[in-house]
């Protein structure tokens, strides 16, 4: 199949491109700077500067992962707008592509897998969270809700839509661990605040496998939690990571320090949700790395 990916040069997208090519799919990548990202992607990827540039070879599957990193900068009003626009604009590109294909009488993709995040639920304390849990209204929820809403019009064109609310993605060389490992390797790691906040996580290979599972299972649509079945608290994550590195983790970072340093963005570090992948599990998806111990052992 021809699979078009936004965010294909990112941490998750790169691995997805590799796996799709391994399984014999044709991979199309949308990037604002094709020449800059070419070195990060397999040579077999067809990289163009817009979704509309693929009108001559219409995709059969859409995977929408593009968006400014939520932790790139402090959340000023302008940065919040950048976070929202980067997600909505990339999603709208795919909607526009489908509208143009439909107007031309060309075949539409059969499915769009569209990204979202655990932030959709907001701070849920220690409540067990599945796909039916009402969200807590804060900026992370507003961001994810607008991202998800931007994808909804594709359903009216008869395209199946599956939304993945993704947890913290773990793998060497990027994501959460890239930022956490340096102090932990020096024995300077510790919990954030009380450490009681939950950290839904997923190994990158399991996330890629979940995307491909949703791509291939034609009866699955709606929202899915993209996280491992055994979330942990920040204190548990800290302890497990330190154990894998054979280092102590005795330097907690007080909540007031994080709030002073990151402002409203400190919510990402001090709040969370005990998010479970209820719908993926019910659909028969099997996690290669269901526990944090197993995931970190494979990574480190």
Automatic annotation (TrEMBL):
Q: Which residues form the NAD-dependent epimerase/dehydratase domain?
A: 3-217
Annotated DUF1731 domain residues: 253-299
Q: Transmembrane residues, as ranges?
A: none
Q: Which family does it belong to?
A: Belongs to the NAD(P)-dependent epimerase/dehydratase family. SDR39U1 subfamily.
Q: What is this protein called?
A: TIGR01777 family oxidoreductase
Q: Species name for this entry?
A: Vreelandella alkaliphila
